[in-house]
Design goal:
The strands form four sheets. A five-stranded antiparallel sheet has the order 1-2-3-7-6, with helices on one face. A three-stranded antiparallel sheet has the order 8-10-11. A two-stranded antiparallel ribbon has the order 4-5. The two termini are about 30 Å apart. The chain has seven helices and twelve strands. It has helices at about 65-80, 110-120, 125-145, 210-220, 230-240, 255-260, 270-285, and strands at about 15-25, 25-35, 40-45, 50, 55, 90-95, 100-105, 110, 150, 160-165, 165-170, 175. Helix content is about 25%, strand content about 15%. By secondary structure, the chain is α+β, with helices and mostly antiparallel strands.
Length: about 350
């Protein structure tokens, strides 16, 4: 019998589906009741099928042939990572033609907190609060980098979860091993709003996640991103060629953010925590006083995930406040409690 993904079904014995939390091109995410009455999030990623409708997953010697294949490889890399600021993975397995992933259920995302602050008339998340969140994210990312040789490669507000006001880094579908030369290329799925310039050449570095974290910081603080592109081509050109627009940020933050956004990975901070600690020290030197922010646009929507592309040459665009791009489902809405 084919897998049934609907309320009250049990795709895995003992895990009863309650409601769908989100869906997109990759599949669906559901809230489920697990054995013992615990609540979990279950993500279903459909395997790519061949002409004979058999599931193609993890074929030896092959590059990633489907989103499920890519995600399964990423999960295999990250399954041994245990940290209080990393979302917990309970289990993952193939059921019929689906990769099924059971995970911890979170309260909300950092993006949800940003929207709440905007609704209260603030430009974004208060600076001290935001830096506390991102310090936790930086600690988790640096652990993955230094001890497990991994880069997340999809850091964005929708993938930073909040559980009792603490960060949980989530969605490991693009995680890559820095030391495995076979996987030193990125086959697709990066979110161009937050992706480091080197990823558009199909590569990544130990500082790629830091670049994304810097964009998250500016956007969540001010409502503005460093680049204003609304299409894939515009964003690629701006990341590769343009100066970033940091004018909405506090003056004492700008040289620090600029360093984290360096086009050359070697010119960035050694790690994510050094970047965040530099921002916290700058805040302490100014007494944590309020800074003037530019008027921020409406909260930006989750970004469409585009495949990474070869470097594109072209004219420079203009940096500045970002208009909302086409929204799509993000995994960030996938693990939320009622």
């Amino acid at each position: 019998m084919p897998l049934r993904i609907e309320p009250n079904e049990e795709p895995i014995a003992g895990y009863r589906l309650i409601e769908r939390l989100g869906s997109g091109g990759f599949g669906e995410v559901w809230k489920a009741e697990a054995p013992g009455g615990l609540y979990k999030a279950i993500k279903f990623v459909q395997c790519e099928t061949t002409q004979d409708d058999s599931c193609v997953l993890g074929a030896p010697g092959e590059t990633d042939r489907s989103r499920a294949d890519q995600e399964l490889k990423s999960l295999s890399r990250v399954k041994s990572v245990h940290h209080p600021y990393v979302i917990s993975l309970d289990r993952f397995e193939i059921v019929d033609d689906f990769l099924v992933i059971v995970m911890e259920l979170a309260d909300r995302t950092l993006y949800d907190r940003f929207k709440q602050c905007r609704g209260q008339g603030l430009p974004g998340v208060p600076r001290e609060e935001l830096l506390n969140y991102l310090r936790e994210a930086a600690e988790a990312l640096d652990l993955m980098n230094s001890q497990y040789q991994l880069q997340h490669l999809d850091i964005k507000p929708q993938n930073l979860f909040l559980v009792h006001n603490h960060i949980k880094v989530a969605d490991f579908g693009l995680v890559k091993d820095i030391n495995d030369q076979k996987f030193m290329t990125i086959t697709g799925g990066v979110t161009p709003v937050y992706a480091a310039p080197e990823t558009f050449d199909g590569k990544f570095s130990r500082q790629s996640d830091q670049y994304s974290l810097a964009i998250v910081y500016q956007e969540m603080l001010t409502g503005h991103r460093p680049f204003n592109g609304t299409t894939m081509k515009q964003l690629i050109l701006q990341h590769l060629q343009n100066a970033h627009d940091l004018t909405p940020t506090p003056v004492h933050d700008r040289p620090i953010i600029s360093k984290a956004l360096a086009k050359n990975p070697e010119d960035r901070f050694p790690n994510c925590l050094d970047f965040i600690l530099s921002l916290q020290r700058a805040n302490a030197k100014t007494g944590g006083g309020a800074s003037t922010f530019a008027a921020a646009p409406a909260p930006s929507a989750p970004e469409k995930a585009f495949p990474s592309l070869p470097k594109t040459e072209g004219a420079r665009g203009n940096a500045g406040p970002v208009k909302p791009a086409e929204p799509n489902f993000s995994i960030g809405k996938a693990f939320l409690r009622d």
